[in-house]
Write a structure and sequence with these properties.
The complex is a heterotrimer of chains A (320), B (260) and C (279).
Chain A lengths: L3 E11 L4 E11 L3 E5 L6 H9 L6 E6 L2 E2 L10 E4 L11 H12 L4 H11 L15 H13 L5 E5 L7 H18 L2 E6 L2 H7 L2 E6 L2 E6 L1 H6 L4 H7 L3 E3 L2 E3 L5 E3 L9 E10 L3 E8 L4 E7 L10 E5 L11
Parallel strand pairs in A: 3-8, 3-9, 6-7, 7-8
Antiparallel strand pairs in A: 1-2, 1-4, 4-5, 9-10, 11-12, 13-17, 14-15, 14-17, 15-16
Helix pairs in contact in A: 2-4, 3-4
Chain B lengths: L1 H26 L14 H8 L1 H33 L5 H19 L2 H19 L5 H24 L5 H8 L4 H30 L2 H6 L7 H11 L3 H25 L2
Helix pairs in contact in B: 1-11, 2-11, 3-6, 3-8, 3-10, 4-6, 6-8, 7-8, 8-11
Chain C lengths: L2 H32 L3 E2 L5 E2 L5 H4 L4 H33 L5 H13 L2 H12 L4 H8 L13 H25 L3 H9 L4 H12 L1 H16 L3 H6 L7 H9 L5 H22 L8
Antiparallel strand pairs in C: 1-2
Helix pairs in contact in C: 1-13, 3-7, 3-10, 4-7, 5-7, 7-10, 8-9, 10-13, 12-13
Classes of the chains: A alpha+beta (320), B mainly alpha (260), C mainly alpha (279).
């Protein structure tokens, strides 16, 4: 087994009204950018909170760096959290916020460490500002700085990009990936956005209804989904009975192709989306699929009879 | 709708403020009758040489200071404790019992609070060999002002993001440090406002104080009441003006701090 | 919650719990107990246990006092609501100066209630300012007896508790969605109709809160009736005070207190609705 810095062993969490996490086991490698991906309510945030120490597992164990931590309070764990709304202390300026954890440890060389992290996160010159005087992106960097300056074993990030506006998000995403590589700290990233998870992570664990459906690299998760849920969650999917095909793998033409595996149908809608088009087809015999074609291909119109097929090896995967 | 409403508001504000303004005006009237005879400060001078007035004012201040400190301390801690949710069963009893008692304290008529404390002290003093005095007044004042402190501090707590406390825990602070270094600074303006509230409520109380003060101690409201009972007194006008101006200033300061 | 957190929380709640237990719960319990005992020879209380203090309240003499108190409190409450509502409306619609106008209402309230009551003595008595002015203007030839009667008490109560009414009314009106009134106008309602069909019904929670906040203290009022009322204006509060000072009939005073408390609790209970909080 690779060097795992954080280990969850059969962790479950039962609340009074419902079971939030069921039998979750994770092994997070040292230095990785690891994402917990899933829809809201799937238990990813609860799992994160159990690692941070704000919830205690109802059963199972949490191991950090070879030591069991699930019974320790948050202030005795070598993990730090970047909260969704950043939770910067409003009564302290930037420097005060960043120093906060260091002061609790009565750390030596505080000033140097703070200066270094201010540089790493491009916050020089902003030390005496109060959180209310910072932009959204700046506040996020202060939240990162405040946690990273403590050199935690694992940094937990709870949907840190969701509070930013969409244009900023893509840019900050790239910066976050770059930061993690430079700093080398293990990142555990929680998100509901599959594009974020795919672009940032070394490994992804997809969660649904309190349990892990699949763990693997982004390529494995997208191209070889093991369950119907994972397949649908990672991208658009056409379901014909139990067979799933991605729209970009779905071929469409006006003439039946060679071989008799194509299905006839009628076009019900053709939507122009910029660099590609989505053609919605109602199949003879029931069901409907969406075929994705590059814009400019022979134009399809509503009402036309068309033929739809795909490569059998593309089922429940991605196009070859 | 605007114009007549504004005129009405003028009348309403006049109704609220003019009586006190009139007291103030007549406090500098050299005549003791309700006819203006000239400007004079001799009623103020008379007030300052009246031993009863000075002594009772001093008593009231001492009582108010002690009561305010105790009520603010107890109330702030209680508000914070109530604000934190608790999962344990006995914790929940303590919670609802305590909030219920604060509510009860606010809706109990003053006269009932007063007589119940009187009766309780008298019963207690059979075993403790003590008498009614300033100490019983202080206890009574703390008792009825704590609920006000809790309301003011609780209102401020409702706008406090609990995630800030989690962030502090995450960064290595114990629960005690979280309270002192993160929550308390946030609560400071509300605590100051609550203290001023407790102070003004204590200084002004008559009904409860008169019942539990015993024969030896007099507070300012008790002396004012006695004077008012005897009839209108120009010295009383002067005293009233001083008290109203002093308390009014405190209230203004308190409101400033609350919205800081 | 960790055990350290639990211990801290208990520590924070304990002083208040002890205080409330000893200064509220136990004293009220003692009062309740005393209400069933007999008056002692030199004041104080004695056994035997009795219901006499309560049956005594059925005497029409005391019935009259209760009725008078409810009547005066009721009138004062209605007046506070009627006078307070337009004022609260004004403040709610005054835009940027809201806080200033609100403070102008709160300010007199927090300065001495006793002194504010005395101010009306000064104004209303036979040789007081109002009579002096009216006589000076030749409108009357003998002073109007404005003091030492029920009317003066009502006036004093309204003056004292008007801010208590304005605050919850303002809170409700301020939260009123202005677009609702726009919708009413759009559908053909003139301002007066909109007031009665939209604003008023939606202000009911505030009106209820204001009514309770005025009525209950009025029920137990002591100072106002003592200073401004006549020899006939003995209200429940004065009656209780009497028993514990001059009359030295503690059990009877305790019984009246219990009845007063029950009345107050009853009103609160009857008036509460889902989701409304006074605290």
């Amino acid at each position: 087994m690779t060097d795992a810095i954080l280990d969850l062993r059969n962790v479950s969490k039962q609340f009074a009204t419902h079971r939030a996490v069921t039998d979750v086991s994770l092994s997070i490698p040292r230095g990785a950018f690891f994402s917990l991906l899933g829809p809201s309510g799937c238990g990813k945030t609860t799992t994160l909170r159990m690692i941070a120490g704000f919830e205690t597992p109802s059963s199972g164990e949490v191991w950090l760096n070879g030591q069991r931590i699930d019974h320790l309070p948050p202030y005795r764990r070598s993990v730090n959290t970047v909260f969704q709304n950043y939770a910067l202390f409003p009564h302290l300026h930037v420097r005060g916020n960043i120093e906060f954890g260091l002061r609790r440890q009565n750390a030596s060389g505080m000033d140097d460490r703070v200066t270094r992290v201010l540089d790493q996160l491009r916050l020089e010159g902003k030390e005496s500002r109060k959180p209310s005087e910072l932009s959204g992106g700046e506040r996020q960097r202060v939240a990162l700085a405040r946690s990273l300056v403590l050199a935690p074993d694992v940094l937990l990030l709870d949907e840190p990009l969701s509070a930013l506006d969409p244009q900023l998000r893509k840019q900050v995403r790239a910066e976050l990936k770059d930061l993690q590589r430079r700093v080398g700290v293990t990142f555990l990233f929680v998100t509901h956005d599959q594009e974020e998870a795919l672009s940032l992570s070394d490994q992804i664990a997809v969660m649904n209804r309190g349990a892990i459906e699949q763990t693997g690299t982004p390529q494995e998760i997208y191209q070889r989904p093991r369950t119907r849920f994972v397949a649908s969650f990672m991208g658009a999917m056409n379901w014909i009975g139990d067979v799933g095909v991605r729209p970009e793998c779905t071929r469409i033409s006006r003439e039946p192709p060679a071989g008799n595996s194509a299905r006839p149908g009628t076009v019900t809608a053709a939507t122009f989306l910029g660099s590609y088009e989505h053609i919605e087809v109602e199949l003879q015999g029931g069901g409907s699929v969406i075929a994705q074609i590059s814009a400019g291909e022979n134009g399809f119109e509503t009402g036309q009879t068309v033929y739809v097929w795909w490569n059998p090896s593309d089922e429940l995967g991605s196009c070859s | 709708m605007k114009k007549p409403l504004a005129w009405y508001a003028v009348l309403a504000y006049a109704f609220l403020h003019v009586p006190l303004l009139i007291l103030a005006i007549f406090s500098v009237n050299s005549s003791r009758f309700t006819i203006w005879e000239g400007f004079s400060l001799h009623w103020y001078r008379a007030a300052f040489v009246d031993r009863d007035l000075i002594e009772s004012a001093a008593n009231s201040l001492v009582i108010a200071v002690f009561a305010t400190i105790l009520a603010t301390f107890i109330g702030t801690l209680a508000a914070y404790g109530l604000w934190k949710k608790t999962p344990s069963r006995q914790g929940r009893w303590l919670h609802s019992g305590l909030s219920g008692s604060f509510y009860l304290s606010l809706v109990t008529p003053e006269i009932v609070t007063g007589v119940s404390l009187l009766v309780f002290f008298e019963w207690l003093f059979r075993f403790l060999h003590m008498r009614l005095g300033m100490h019983t007044v202080i206890v009574a004042h703390v008792a009825f002002s704590v609920a006000y402190v809790v309301i003011v501090v609780m209102a401020r707590l409702r706008s406090f993001d609990p995630v800030l406390e989690e962030a502090a825990l995450d960064l290595g602070a114990t629960e005690y440090v979280v309270f002192t270094k993160v929550t308390l600074p946030y609560l400071a303006p509300a605590i100051a406002a609550a203290a001023m509230l407790a102070f003004t409520v204590s200084i002004d109380d008559y009904v409860i104080t008169s019942l539990v003060a015993g024969v030896d101690s007099q507070t300012l409201p008790m002396v004012i009441y006695a004077m008012a009972r005897r009839g209108v007194n120009p010295v009383l006008n002067a005293v009233s003006t001083i008290v109203v101006v002093a308390l009014g200033t405190m209230v203004v300061l308190s409101e400033r701090m609350r919205s800081a | 919650m960790t055990s350290a957190a639990g211990r801290l929380q208990k520590a924070f709640l304990s002083p208040a719990a002890i205080l409330m237990l000893t200064t509220l719960a136990i004293p009220l319990g003692v009062i309740a107990a005393y209400s069933f005992m007999t008056r002692g020879a030199y004041g104080g209380v004695e056994h035997p246990w009795t219901l006499e203090n309560y049956t005594r309240l059925f005497d029409p003499l005391y019935g009259a006092i209760f009725l008078r108190t409810f009547w005066i409190s009721g009138v004062a409450t209605v007046l506070c609501l009627a006078l307070g509502f337009p004022l609260a409306l004004f403040i709610a619609r005054s835009g940027s100066r809201k806080n200033l106008y609100l403070s102008l209402v709160i300010l007199p309230f927090w300065t001495s209630f006793l002194i504010r009551t005395y101010a009306w003595m000064f104004l209303l008595r036979d040789t007081g300012l109002i009579n002096t002015i009216l006589q000076g203007l030749g409108l009357i030839h003998a002073p109007l007896p404005m003091l030492y009667n029920d009317g003066a008490v009502i006036l004093g109560l309204v003056y004292g508790y008007l801010p208590f009414a304005v605050l919850p009314l303002y809170a409700t009106l301020e939260r009123l969605d202005a677009t609702l009134l726009e919708a009413a106008a759009d559908l053909g309602a003139n301002p007066m109709t909109a007031m009665f069909r939209v604003t008023l019904p939606l202000s009911m929670p505030g009106i209820r809160a204001a009514a309770i906040l005025v009525f209950i203290p009025c029920l137990g009022t002591y100072l106002t009736s003592d200073l401004l009322g006549g020899s006939k204006t003995i209200l429940i509060g004065n009656l209780v005070q009497n028993q514990f000072t001059t009359s030295r009939d503690w059990p009877f005073g305790a019984a009246i207190s219990v009845v007063l408390m029950i009345a107050a609790m009853g009103i609160l209970f009857a008036a509460r609705r889902e989701g409304e909080e006074l605290l």
